[in-house]
Amino acid sequence: MRKLIVFLLAGLAFVIMAPVAHADQPGRHPAYLHALTDLRHARAHLERRGGDSQVKWDERVAIAEIDAAISEIKLASIDDGKGLGDHPPVDAHLDWGGRMHRARELLDSAHRDVKQEEDNERTRGLQVRALRHIDAAVNFVDQGMAAARR
Fold this sequence. Notes:
This protein is mostly helical.
């Protein structure tokens, strides 16, 4: 009887502790987590603080596409629990053109991360939609960079 109780308690302890042991380990899709960081960082580069009147439609649309890509990744059950404001700091020395170029680099990095092979059939559609949103954001950032050069 004592052995049975010890065995049951050990089993219970294992069931309780197993999720805790894996809490700090990266998930099955660490590339998606990296993409979320890059997307939030790219978004921060495109945001103009204080309701700047110079914000153009393409910047707002690019930000909306980035937000949609973040949502798709989170729907794929890849959620790091961080908000849109949780990103590396934006380089204060970059001018607006430099910020757009940096946002473009971050979007390219996020695209590469999200594009990695997906073995879960359920999340493949979400992956495709996230890539479409990232590509749309890239297109709007490219338009913004072309407008800034004029």
